């Protein structure tokens, strides 16, 4: 049973468009929600992270929106570029424990 | 900035052989995590160590063992290898004593192929 549910499985966005990836969780003990970007054959790279006491966090073109009551969070990539084409994983953990990953979204940005 | 180092980057073994994967965490990081990622899958947690003691255990087969040494590097030992062990193995590190204790930084991974 996937503790962190992620959608869509794959996403195609035109260059300059907005990419949106959604995640939901059940375990209310989770208190840290990172997003990782992974290129083929490479390790996951931390992109941006949020804690549940904040509803939104923005870093450059990347924004996390967090809805604690709905237990949902999402990643928005503004002005999407071909270099953003990668697999994105939402994740969650609590008390500095193991990371639980979502199933991943393969993002392709069309030139 | 220094990152997590893993060696070897690629490893090819035969069935029933043994393999040892090494992980060198970011300097001063005291916690190491091991994850396994199959093709097209998300990383799955195997085991973690804090200050050289096992801190958590996930879906790690009994054929696998790991430890963290006094210099904080860690080794994942895999015996009686099976075809299904073919995967990317990632090590991640974090600093428990900091305000960023939840943040885990991943290494480049070791690609293990079992023939």
Summarize this structure as a short list of keywords or feature phrases:
heterodimer, A: 111 residues, mainly beta, six-stranded mixed sheet, five-stranded antiparallel sheet, 0% helix, globular, B: 115 residues, seven-stranded mixed sheet, four-stranded antiparallel sheet, 11 strands
Tell me what the structure shows.
The complex is a heterodimer of chains A (111) and B (115). Chain A is mostly beta strands. Chain A has strands spanning 4-7, 10-14, 19-25, 33-38, 45-50, 56-59, 62-67, 72-77, 86-92, 100-101, 105-110. In chain B, 0% of the residues lie in helices and 50% in strands. Chain B has strands spanning 5-7, 10-13, 19-24, 31-37, 44-50, 53-57, 64-68, 74-78, 87-94, 105-106, 110-114. In chain B, strand 7 (64-68) and strand 8 form a beta hairpin. Chain B is globular. The model of chain B has no long low-confidence stretch (mean pLDDT 94). The A-B interface holds A 31-32, 34, 36, 41-46, 49, 89, 93, 96-104 and B 4, 31, 33, 35, 42-45, 48, 56, 58, 88, 90, 92, 94, 96, 101-109, 111.
- The structure class of chain B reads mainly beta
| SSE run of chain B | EEEEEEEEEEE
By DSSP, the count of extended strands of chain A is: 11
Distance between the termini of chain A: 37 Å
Q: Specify the number of helices of chain A.
A: 0
Largest sheet of chain A: 6 strands, mixed
- Any idea what the radius of gyration of chain A is? 13 Å
Chain pair with largest interface: A-B, 22 and 26 residues
Low-confidence stretches of chain B: none
> In terms of quaternary structure, what is this?
heterodimer
Cα Rg of chain B:
13 Å
Strand-residue proportion of chain A = over 45%
Can you give the helix content of chain B as a percent range? under 10%
Please write the string of helix (H) and strand (E) elements of chain A: EEEEEEEEEEE
Largest beta-sheet characterization of chain B: 7 strands, mixed
Number of helices of chain B: 0
Approximately how much beta-strand content do the residues of chain B carry? Answer: over 45%
Average of per-residue pLDDT values of chain A = 95
- Distance separating the two termini of chain B: 37 Å
Strand pairing plus helix content of chain A: what structural class?
mainly beta
């Amino acid at each position: 049973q996937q503790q962190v549910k992620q959608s869509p499985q794959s996403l195609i966005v035109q260059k300059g468009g907005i990419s949106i990836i959604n995640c939901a969780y059940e375990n209310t003990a989770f208190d840290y929600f990172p997003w990782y970007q992974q290129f083929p054959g490479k390790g996951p790279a931390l992109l941006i992270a949020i804690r549940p006491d904040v509803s939104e966090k923005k870093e450059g073109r990347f924004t996390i929106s967090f809805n604690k009551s709905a237990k949902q969070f999402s990643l928005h990539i503004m002005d999407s570029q071909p270099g953003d084409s990668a697999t994105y994983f939402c994740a969650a953990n609590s008390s500095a424990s193991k990371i639980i990953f979502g199933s991943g979204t393969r993002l392709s940005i069309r030139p | 900035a220094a990152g997590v180092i893993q060696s070897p980057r690629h490893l090819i073994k035969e069935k029933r052989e043994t393999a040892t994967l090494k992980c060198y965490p970011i300097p001063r990081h005291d916690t190491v995590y091991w994850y396994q990622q199959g093709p097209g899958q998300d990383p799955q947690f195997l085991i973690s160590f804090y200050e050289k003691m096992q801190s958590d255990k996930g879906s790690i087969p009994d054929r696998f063992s790991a430890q963290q040494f006094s210099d904080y590097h860690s080794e994942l030992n895999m015996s009686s290898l099976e075809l299904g062990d073919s995967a990317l193995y990632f090590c991640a590190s974090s600093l428990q004593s900091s305000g960023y204790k939840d943040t885990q930084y991943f290494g480049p991974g070791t690609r293990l192929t079992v023939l």
